[in-house]
Design brief:
The protein is mainly α. The protein is built from three helices and two strands, in the order ααββα. The chain has a domain of about 60 residues.
């Protein structure tokens, strides 16, 4: 039990500067000006918005397809019930 406790990280949280991701320049040096980081985050936000819109569109198409399949199954079941009632 003591061994498990010893392996846990300390309870202190890292400062915001230490947690912030660093952007690497082509030369390999760390680039992290606020404007560059903001531009990177805005680009990621825009990409996520586009992905969200594509996902919403796909969900809409799938829901419409699901509704058509559900209606077709209901129609087939009604037809089968009508056939069975006609024989009885």
């Amino acid at each position: 039990m003591a061994r498990r406790r010893a392996s846990k990280a300390s309870g202190k949280s890292a400062s915001a500067a230490a947690r912030a991701p660093r952007v690497k320049a082509k030369g390999g040096s760390a680039v992290g000006t606020l404007a560059e980081r903001l531009a990177a985050v805005e680009g990621e936000r825009n990409a996520l918005r586009e992905e969200l819109e594509r996902s919403r569109s796909r969900v809409r198409v799938l829901e419409e397809s699901h509704a058509r399949v559900r209606d077709r199954i209901a129609w087939a079941l009604d037809s089968l019930h009508n056939i069975l009632e006609g024989k009885g």
